[in-house]
Amino acid sequence: MADQQLPAANGHSNGDSGVPEEVPELPNYLYRALERLAPREGFTEGKFSIAFDFGSSKGDGFVGQMFKAIISEGGRQEVYLCKIPPLDDARREEFKSMIAFAREAFVYERFLPLFFDYQRQKGVRSRDDGFFHAPRCYYAYCNEAAQESVIIMEDLRLREFRLWNKHDPVDYEHARLFMTHIGRLHAISLAMKRDRPEQFEQFKLPNPFDEMLKEDSPFRNMILSQVQMVIDALDEEDTVTRAKMEQLKEDVFRELLRCGDPSLAEPYAVVGHGDCWTNNMMFRYQDGSPQEIILLDWQVLRYVTPAQDLVYFIFSCTDGAFRRKHYEEMIDIYHSSLSAMLERLQHDPNELFPRSALDEQLHQFGRYGILMGMFLVPMMCTRADELPDIEAMAKQMKETNQLNESFFKTTESNKEAYSKRISDVVKDSIRYGYF
Asked: Among 382, 378, 407, which Cα is nearest to 392's?
């Protein structure tokens, strides 16, 4: 067997200190998954070796860890990205990683293949016309009871895809590309719900993290702390805005549940990506301009209002200056793309999702932009060396059954940038009538 030939894990340079960091001991089920994959990829049983390196940077994920696997035989070498639950027991258990991995394995095994197949049967086969913008998945496995899961994917960096710098608000071309393709994804959902209602039923999934909102959840204090961070960042003289946020603090758990209730969004509820920020998408460029997008991290895919994906992205990943100039145009781009996709799927967009319905969805659920911005904006303003110690926070939760602090705190280095961006999120939500 190949595990008898495994070399020692590779070293990895720590970007902050320059000191090589060793890949930790990895679970046996990861080796077994790669051993099953290798023959399917043309490697000879018993003659290949597997080595590992780190696959992502600090702060790129909370509920999972990424490692790069290199399978070698003779002069051939192939690279795969392996996503597994946190190795730290407390972090894996307290942050509900297995729930997220079960959802993502389902996405790669069932959801995406059926969505792709539906498009092809409708005559949509080109990436230029449809939504096929997910990484290739070679293997997806999850056993929640055993706390084992691995998702093996292509390394998009080998195809010249790149992450946007999460500290920078996105520009027009990147935002346009996202709005175009999320519109297509939502359109397929609406069309398939009409054409294949029985098959579609399995995709009517709830938010896997709604249990974090329950009265006995250790996350409640943390959520309240995030709201208070927003209030503290607002101008003390802006009494109207502060009063609105104080009221939101009273209602935050009800609002999070309301914005995620698909029954309130019918008949326009869709299967949404659920985690639309810049670290969950990669871009390929030509002459410096983004030409292609891939959506990553499908761990919170759920059935919900289409407005969620839109305001999550716009209010977390753009800034106030961008929204003042392009907000309405971004919504137009989204709906035009959705409408064109519905027509390619032989449906009338004025029947399945007219523009007036989109405006109503945004008005009813647009407040979700603040609810997600209060988590995402501080993270985007935090330097890598100031990111929280997730293992320590998980240990505290395990010992006390409470998380009494924010994930991200303002520091001298990020206070000004955070205050400006989050204040604009609140003001823009009011400006558009969402708050």
From this structure: 407
